[in-house]
Amino acid sequence: MQIDRCRGWTVLLLLGSVAGCAGNGQGLDENGQPISGGGGGNGTVTADFQSIQNNVFTPICSKCHIGASAPEGLQLDAGHSYNLLVGVASVEQPNLQRVAPGAPDGSYMVHKIEGVPGITGGQMPLGETPLPQATIDAIRQWITNGAPNAAVAAATAQSFAVQTTAPLDQALVRVPPAQILVTFTQDVDASLVNGSTVTLERIDGPLSVVSGDAQRMPAHSALAEKNAAVLVITPTAVLDSGIYRVTVRGSGGGALANMNAATLGTDASFEFTVEPAP
Ligand code: HEC
Q: Do you find a cis peptide bond into 167, omega within 30 degrees of 0?
């Protein structure tokens, strides 16, 4: 059953490698030339998510922010960007949300596109012309308006399923993740998020080798406060190098479900490897 759920993620992994952006922060294309472009995309950006996706995230940001190599696990292609941005903590500055609905000045993504002093790493888009002020203003206005999701209507037509995860399935991560994200096509019923529906296990640890059982890792699971389609799993101790598996129980009594009590129908799991410190 893991196979079924992972098919989409495998496709993403492939896309990530074909896109060939290593997300290494160099701002260079595959020939080592600086990536040019930037600007504001093709059209005038308005203060709604669809316009920002079509004119900024897709043409400018998702060159790098895509697939398994997406920097900080932040995929900005259509269908992934919203739930990896809105209500979700930044990796670089975990005290700030990437997009905090209603609070553009408290949104780390705004800091990154404005290049304000105090950001970690570079201004976005990295190594390119900064976004025009009119584009930044439209993004700020969308956030001020509460950062509504344009795709809600479309999403309700979809069935309840896992959308993506960070880290992605089979990813190798250098820095132990402080948070693990599982995003869904629809809002999740918060009352069903608990230690029986969401588990984090280490599957290569010494205990697992002896007993044949995976070793359960202590972690806190909750929905993002302002985005109930995002499950945030916070390990309560730093994850040592090793192989980890996250499982979301989508069948059986008390299985994870959406607000209409529709379950995933099957368990969904993914694995990632925390690499040894260099
Ligand atoms: C040339 C590749 C590249 C492009 C294009 C790019 N980024 Fe990035 N982005 C990175 C890299 C690499 C990092 C991590 C290192 C850093 O922050 O400098 C990053 C980090 C980020 C972070 C921090 C994430 C976190 O959780 O802390 C945000 C937010 C971000 N980018 C948003 C954007 C947006 C929005 C755009 C488009 C306007 C964009 N990026 C375009 C490469 C890119």
A: yes
